[in-house]
Amino acid sequence: MTTLGTGVLRVRHWLRDHPLALDAALALAVLVAMIGGSFVHPRPGEGPSFGTSPPAVSGVLLMVAGAVALIWRRRNPMVVLAVTAGLTVVELVKSDPPAPVVMATVIALCTVAARTDRPTTWRAGLLTMAVLTASAMLFGAAPWYSQENFGVFAWTGMACAAGDAVRSRRAFVDAIRERAERAERSRDEEARRRVAEERLRIARDLHDVVAHHIALVNVQAGVAAHVMDKRPDQAKEALAHVREASRSALDELRATVGLLRQSGDPAAPTEPAPGLAVLDALVDTVRRAGLPVEVVCADRRPPLPAAVDLAAYRVIQEALTNVRKHAGPGARAEVSVVRVGSTAEVTVIDNGFGGGGGQGDGGGHGLLGMRERVTALGGTLTAGPRYGGGFRVHAILPVEARTGESGEPGPAGRTGETA
Fold first, then answer.
1. Looking only at Cα atoms, what is the longest distance across the chain?
2. pTM for this one?
3. In the chain, at which end, N or C, are there fewer CB atoms within 10 A of the end residue's CB?
4. How far apart are CA 25 and CA 32, in angstroms?
């Protein structure tokens, strides 16, 4: 059965690639059917008889001509219909009884219906039915109401209906295929968009991790180099801070790069992403680097959604890094996290005089990354110099309102608390 099915499949593919051969085989089959039908003659009251009289030579020639015309039915369907219909009219007028040349016309009419639009199909079908039926009724030897004449009308009508059904099914299949291809393209575009968004998010995380920790390493290394000769104990302490900062940077880089691993790679670290829960550790690290930081308000209740929590942490981390790099000597920083209704406001200010927003040597990439991160969550970020000196970074992050929270005021009255 497998061999038979494979053979049939190969034949179908070959016929699909050679449509002219398929039409020639169809024309031969139609010719055999017409010649076989020409030996059948109806006898009123007794039923049809077979082989009582052979077809006339003119009838055979007309059947052969009609079958040959069907070979080009795909290339010129209207021309083939006109030729076969003309041959049928000639046979109906000249021969008695007529040969079944109308079979070729039925095939040609079905082809026209399958390969043209519906209005053209019904115009051509009605004209063909009218001409052939009128010729059979007016010039045939049988009475005009005979079943042979109405058979011509029925066969041409069924040819139109069958061809229209084939065309409708073909259009339906093409529409389904086109819809499936469009859906596939949409899935590919969505996948590419998500990949681009994930790359951008990972790039932001890498920037935040590298910029923060490398800035701390740079500061502590400078301190160690400065006091190495005179105060080696402070140099050792600074080098210990360098080691701790570099270890933290490596851990966060390992966690971020782990997101890029394939399914067969070793498992990525399972530590939670940094957030406001480790804000104290971040502040302590910055303080040890020489920047006094005061957390005037750290509202952590209830816990923020994971994406908002990470964004708030990254904004504070990047803002403090920029203060340490650009605010100048003697600068101090304040950090505030406040819940106001359905939003969380993160504010980092300093009193430096060196343009603490990161617009100096860093080229502004820190601010750009913070703004993109906050905007991706539907929030807003503003950053700029403060009146009287210093710099201010203020981010408003949307938070889904929880029951009983919508009317609760933020803890603004807690300003001044020290972490």
1. 134
2. 0.44
3. N
4. 11
